[in-house]
Design brief:
Its cofactor is Mn(2+); Mg(2+). 39% of the residues lie in helices and 17% in strands. A hairpin with a 4-residue loop joins β15 and β16. Bound molecules: NADPH dihydro-nicotinamide-adenine-dinucleotide phosphate, 2-oxoglutaric acid (AKG) and magnesium ion.
């Protein structure tokens, strides 16, 4: 099949050797615009990043953006039925660092999530979502400055694996019969017209996620890693995740019992400080993050818990309009907003582009372009402090000036 992607001729690929990225001065970065509000936020992100890079490095460095396709735009560019072209995945793999806008997933019917498919097909097993407050952002909590957490959400397993059968199908009936007849299951309350799903959680998948979370705590001088799970109810999936999390802390990082256990502690080899490894059951965690946010720093959790937790925490610091994220493995990184396609606002130049812009800030840091990343934060802080904000913040702030998505981007650039 011929390609629909135009590779910038004046750019070079980012490469990886012995786990270290080599970033040329004119790197090619693949991006997916995204469905719905993708058209409102992604072009603003590109303008803001270009401005930060130009300001930081004059014209000695610049990103060569390369559009790749997924979602509705892919169906327009390809043959009408291709939602996630193979060459899109191949480009992310080849160019090592990319970024994407949100993609629509129909509810209760239709195809499975393209966002989840990208993570699974590229085995981007860490979903990294930092949650931090910017001074002046309206928040429903009294002390949003106490929220400073980094979520490591397992991104390749759990019920997001998509092993799920619709009620009334031969597959659902077969699986239910197997469970009842061969496994002695008696607890399926209504076995007629019953949908059924499976939740795979492995030792290897849990180990690699928690390993990254602990390493992050070491590298970034964080005081704790909290394993969040629902292991009292789902003993051999969520409970096993907790067990394996403690195990990896002991076996690979030398963690020891803290005050007689069950929590652990280890000495950060870089700072000599203590890092506590603890666990909290997921429902209790959702109240703890509201009542005692200062007690949590790095969080490691399974896919569904991480999805819920990241939106709940985002609300405490201004909402999903400003919450960034990244999907990572040891080779490839695809940065991505936390929010979805917000269809009711699509094409209105209204929503907050902050989430994908801050995802790009994480991307610049990942590339080692720290000066540009810092400028981006400076611009965002300045725009918020000047109260030139999009509708989501404006409706909660006194005396704020309401701006469009693109005007917010301009305000960020003006404050760099
Ligand atoms: N990674 C991805 O690509 C994701 C995709 N999705 C998909 O997106 C679609 C819509 O999902 P939905 O549950 O409605 O979630 P959305 O995140 O799209 O929107 C929910 C609400 O969040 C607020 N919001 C979202 N984005 C912004 C923004 N940039 N600026 C300001 N406010 C924002 C709006 O709140 P208000 O109404 O208060 O203004 C909006 O109505 C679904 O198909 C879903 O599967 C969902 C999440 C992630
Ligand atoms: O893929 C989707 O449609 C939703 C995914 C999601 O909510 C998330 O990753 O946070
Ligand atoms: Mg989500």
């Amino acid at each position: 099949m011929s390609s629909n992607i135009t590779i910038p001729q004046d750019g070079q690929a980012i490469t990886l050797e012995d786990g270290k990225l080599t970033v040329p001065n004119f790197p090619i970065i693949p991006f997916i615009e995204g469905d719905g509000i993708g058209v409102d936020v992604t072009p603003v992100m590109i303008d803001v990043v270009n401005a930060a890079v130009t300001k930081a490095y004059n014209n000695e460095r610049a990103i060569r953006w390369m559009e790749v396709y997924a979602g509705e735009k892919a169906t327009q560019v390809y043959d009408g039925e291709t939602w996630l072209p193979e060459e899109t995945l191949a480009m992310f793999e080849q160019y090592k660092v990319g970024i994407k806008g949100p993609l629509t997933t129909p509810v209760g019917t239709g195809m499975r999530s393209l966002n989840v498919a990208i993570r699974q097909l590229l085995d981007l097993y860490v979903c990294l979502r930092p949650v931090q407050w910017f001074t002046g952002v309206p928040s429903p909590v009294k002390q949003p400055q106490e929220v400073d957490m980094v979520i490591f959400r397992e991104n390749s397993e759990d019920i997001y694996a998509g092993i799920e059968y619709q009620a009334g199908t031969a597959e659902a009936d077969k699986l239910i019969s197997f469970l009842q007849q061969e496994m002695g299951v008696q607890s399926i309350r209504f076995d007629q017209d019953c949908g059924i799903g499976i939740k795979p959680v492995s030792k290897e998948g849990s180990y690699r996620l928690v390993r990254q979370a602990i390493q992050y705590a070491i590298d970034n001088d964080r005081e704790s890693v909290t394993l969040v799970h629902k292991g009292n109810i789902m003993k051999y999936t969520e409970g096993a995740f907790k067990q394996w999390g403690y195990e990896v802390a002991k076996q690979e990082f030398g963690a020891k019992l803290f005050n007689g256990g069950p929590w652990l502690s280890l000495t950060n080899p870089k700072t000599g400080k203590e890092i506590i490894i603890k666990d909290v059951i997921a429902d209790a965690m959702l109240q703890q993050i509201l009542l005692r946010p200062a007690e949590f720093s790095v969080i490691a959790t399974l896919n569904l818990n991480g999805d819920y937790l990241s939106d709940a925490l985002a609300a405490q610091v201004g909402g999903i309009g400003i919450a960034p994220g990244a999907n990572l493995n040891d080779k490839v990184a695809v940065f991505e907003a936390t929010h979805g396609t917000a269809p009711k606002y699509a094409g209105q130049n209204k929503v907050n582009p902050g989430s994908v812009i801050l995802s790009a800030e994480m991307m610049l840091r990942h590339m080692g372009w720290l000066e540009a990343a810092d400028l981006l934060i400076k611009g965002m802080s300045g725009a918020i402090a000047a109260k030139t904000v999009t509708y989501d913040f404006e409706r909660l702030m006194d005396d704020a000036t309401l701006v469009t998505s693109s005007e917010f981007g301009e305000a960020i650039i003006n404050h760099m």
